[in-house]
Specification:
The complex is a heterodimer of chains A (about 280) and B (about 210).
Chain A: H1 6-10, H2 15-31, H3 42-52, E1 59-65, H4 71-87, E2 91-96, H5 102-112, E3 125-130, H6 134-143, H7 145-148, E4 175-180, H8 184-191, E5 209-213, H9 218-226, E6 232-235, H10 236-247, H11 252-281
Helix pairs in contact in A: 2-11, 3-10, 4-10, 6-8, 10-11
Chain B: H1 3-26, H2 30-67, H3 73-95, H4 102-134, H5 140-156, H6 158-163, H7 166-178, H8 180-202, H9 208-213
Helix pairs in contact in B: 1-2, 2-3, 5-7
């Protein structure tokens, strides 16, 4: 007869057991939502406050630098931000210097934001698509948008897009919202900083750049928010849920919060269980 | 062109580009700005060419795999099929003046989006399993890391603040105070390291990529 205790056995549970536990754990809240309240954290509040300061006619750049794989993390906050931008009657310039699949994300944003229906393409918003180049491209766009994008995604020459008439660089842009799975916000901070922009609509805000990032990057980006280099920041679907709450919409961020609750509790439970087992069986090894 | 001349040319180009970019970043001087913009445009063109080169290289690598019947040749064959299909669809889209082409859009909207989301979501399952197997409080440092991690997780999940307001309080403190000195130290030390690397490259002491050229 085996002298293995339950704790010994628990140390060697097949990983597929965990996969199934998590799968069921994530599925249940979609059928029986908990709807727990979400408190708003200062970085998200900073982003919302920045958006609220926009005046009618101000131009906002949305730089889609996250792929479809990061929709769970970035899309809710992008949708909420764009909703607020359009509600402020600001104009929107959308492009990507980070991900080639930005067209799908752009289409999804347009589908999900009802405010687009009362706006006119070319007058209120324009989409330019993807152009590689990372930081050197961010610097080029700062000085001369037409140098990078000679036409929009529909093939209309940039000069013929009505809203682009007086827009050709950072000096004409009120703020940049960059959705990001990596370092692209760094490029905008470095290249679109106050020394390069002749306009500061945001008073105490040093850099008119906000980050819509994945949860994993939140800790790294936090130091830039606290130093004022980013005027706002959302991390993952939690950040999206907070922004949705502020903007007053119920989107994917709010919906996935229940799954975030369950998955986080399961991971914590697993860590505690594993460590109890480890402490009880440590002496035997 | 001799080997020495090749190296000198690389030194010269790197040096000139670096100096122009530094001057453009720190000073407002129109001729330098124009030159820097020109160089950045070249960089953009080179990157666009690199994407094309990357595609050609991928085809070469996978073609070789198929030819040699390596263990994973079947995946290489699948890559070639999808590559050719998307290439044809993209060319058809271009032939229509860049307008929406339903099959091209369908490929990106359905298979690509679902696969991308699945790939990203799978990491959650790995993390759950790995958390159970790897996160052990083997020493005091590991124990601190574990406890801090649990607080940060409970701050991120709304249920944390339902259990007790202390969880978000401590978790957010870890995020906005506790980890900041370390993160900033990494950033500043990294920046100094980058400066040192740039200086060494300019002085010709960093020869890593020069030797690649030679």
């Amino acid at each position: 007869m085996s002298d293995k205790t339950i704790w010994d056995k628990l140390q060697n549970v097949d990983r597929r057991v965990f996969y199934w536990i998590l799968f069921v754990g994530l599925a249940v809240p979609f059928m029986f939502p908990l709807g727990l309240p979400v408190a708003v954290t200062p970085p998200t509040q900073g982003l919302y406050d920045g958006l609220r300061k926009l005046q009618a006619g101000d131009v906002v750049v949305l730089s889609i630098n996250s792929g479809v794989s990061a929709w769970g993390d970035c899309l809710p906050a992008m949708v909420a931000s764009v909703t607020q931008v359009l509600r402020q009657d600001a104009k929107l310039v959308i492009w990507s210097i980070g991900y080639v699949d930005c067209d799908i994300t752009y289409r999804e944003i347009v589908n999900r934001v009802p405010e687009f229906k009362s706006k006119t393409y070319g007058m209120d918003w324009v989409y330019f698509g993807y152009c590689p180049g990372q930081e050197s491209n961010a610097a080029l766009l700062r000085d001369n948008i037409r140098g990078v994008y000679t036409k929009d995604i529909q093939g209309t020459p940039t000069d013929n897009v009505p809203m682009m008439k007086n827009i050709n660089g950072a000096k004409d842009i009120a703020m940049v919202l960059t959705s990001d799975t990596g370092d692209v916000q760094t490029y905008y901070r470095q290249q679109w900083g106050p020394t390069k922009s002749s306009r500061d609509n945001f008073g105490a805000v040093k850099y008119p750049v906000a980050e819509i990032g994945i949860a994993m990057n939140l800790s790294g980006d936090m130091s830039f928010f606290l130093s004022g280099d980013l005027f706002g920041l959302t991390g993952g679907s939690r950040g999206g849920a907070e922004l949705e709450k502020l903007v007053g919409i119920k989107g994917d961020g709010t919906i996935t919060m229940d799954s975030i609750n369950v998955s986080h509790l399961l991971v914590i439970g697993a860590i505690v269980l594993a460590n109890v087992g480890y402490l009880l069986t440590r002496g035997k090894k | 062109m001799s080997e020495i001349y090749k190296k000198e040319l690389v030194f010269l180009v790197t040096g000139i580009v670096t100096i122009v970019m530094i001057l453009d970043y720190f000073f407002v001087f129109s001729p330098v700005k124009d030159l820097a913009t020109q160089l950045r445009t070249w960089a953009l063109v080179i990157q666009l060419m690199a994407i094309g080169l990357g595609a050609i290289n991928l085809v070469r690598v996978h073609y070789r795999n198929i030819q040699k019947r390596t263990q994973t040749w079947i995946y290489s064959a699948w890559f070639m099929v999808i590559f050719a299909l998307l290439l044809v669809l993209a060319l058809m889209k271009i032939s229509q003046g860049g307008q929406e082409y339903w099959l091209y859009t369908w490929f990106f909207t359905y298979p690509y989006t679902s696969l991308g989301a699945t790939l990203y979501a799978i990491t959650g399952f790995y993390i759950f399993s790995a958390a159970y197997r790897a996160f052990r409080a083997r020493n005091i440092e590991a124990a601190i890391l574990l406890v801090a991690g649990i607080f940060v997780m409970l701050a991120n999940a709304p249920i944390g603040e339902v259990i007790t307001p202390w969880f978000p309080l401590i978790g957010n403190w870890c995020n906005s105070v506790g980890q900041i000195p370390g993160m900033r130290t990494f950033a500043i030390v990294g920046a100094f390291g980058l400066l040192a690397l740039g200086l060494r490259t300019l002085l010709g002491k960093e020869r890593g990529f020069y030797s690649e050229v030679a």
